[in-house]
Specification:
about 70 residues; three-stranded antiparallel beta sheet; 1 helix
Length: about 70
């Protein structure tokens, strides 16, 4: 799963980013699927990865079992 996170200042939530799921050809869709708040771009990227694991568990990479 490929995603794009575009940083943006939201009026209510502050700094964060709009989260887009990339199309099959890698292009950005017109509308974001979520706004991910974060104190900076790195924090928003980390929270976006965690959000995607919860929202799309079947698409998340599986860990190796020992």
């Amino acid at each position: 799963m490929k995603y794009l996170l575009e940083p943006r200042q939201h009026d209510l939530y502050g700094m964060g980013g709009d989260l887009y799921l990339a199309e099959g050809d890698g292009s950005r869709p017109k509308e974001p699927i979520a706004f991910i708040p974060g104190k900076d771009e790195n924090a928003a990227a980390l929270l976006a990865q965690q959000w995607l694991k919860v929202a799309f568990p079947a698409e998340a990479p599986k860990g190796k079992k020992k």
